[in-house]
C-alpha cells in the first residue's frame, strides 16, 4: 500500500498527521507539500525507507518512525532542525527511530543522540 495524499482543500495547513498502523510500505514524495506539518506519526507500518521529501518538512517537531523496517535514513535528515532529540517515550517530541533494523546509521551513532546522528549524516 502506498500512502498518497489526496487533494483536499487547505491540505498545506495540516500540522498533525497520524498514519500509524496502516500497513504502509512507503510514503508518497508529495508529502513535502505539507509545509506546516509539525507532527508526523508513521509508526507500526512496513516502511523500508524514508523518502528524501520528508527531510523538507523543516517544521517537524515530532517524527515517529518506530516499529517499521527502516534500514537507513536519508542524508538530508539533518535539515530537520526542529527535532530536538532522539525520543524514546511515545509522547516525547523529537525523532523516534530506534525501533527499526537500522544498518545506516549504526546503533553506536544513535547512542550519541540526535546531534551525533546529524553530524554522521552531514559527513556523508
Automatic annotation (TrEMBL):
Keywords, comma-separated and alphabetical: Leucine-rich repeat, Repeat
Gene3D superfamilies reported in the protein's UniProt record: Ribonuclease Inhibitor (3.80.10.10)
UniProt entry tagged with the keyword Zinc-finger: no
GO CC, any one term: cytoplasm
PANTHER family from the UniProt entry: PTHR48051, RAS SUPPRESSOR PROTEIN 1
Name under which the protein is recorded: Leucine rich repeat containing 30a
Protein source organism: Oryzias melastigma (Marine medaka)
Lineage: Eukaryota, Metazoa, Chordata, Craniata, Vertebrata
Amino acid at each position: 500500500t502506498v500512502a498518497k495524499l489526496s487533494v483536499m482543500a487547505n491540505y498545506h495547513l495540516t500540522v498533525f498527521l497520524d498514519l500509524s498502523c496502516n500497513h504502509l510500505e512507503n510514503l508518497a514524495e508529495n508529502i513535502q507539500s505539507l509545509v506546516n506539518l509539525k507532527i508526523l506519526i508513521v509508526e507500526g507500518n512496513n516502511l523500508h525507507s524514508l523518502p528524501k521529501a520528508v527531510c523538507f518538512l523543516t517544521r517537524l517537531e515530532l517524527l515517529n518512525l518506530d516499529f517499521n523496517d527502516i534500514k537507513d535514513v536519508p542524508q538530508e535528515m539533518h535539515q530537520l532542525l526542529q527535532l530536538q532529540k532522539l525520543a524514546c517515550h511515545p509522547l516525547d517530541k523529537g525523532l523516534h527511530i530506534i525501533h527499526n533494523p537500522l544498518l545506516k546509521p549504526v546503533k553506536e551513532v544513535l547512542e550519541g543522540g540526535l546531534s551525533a546522528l546529524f553530524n554522521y549524516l552531514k559527513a556523508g
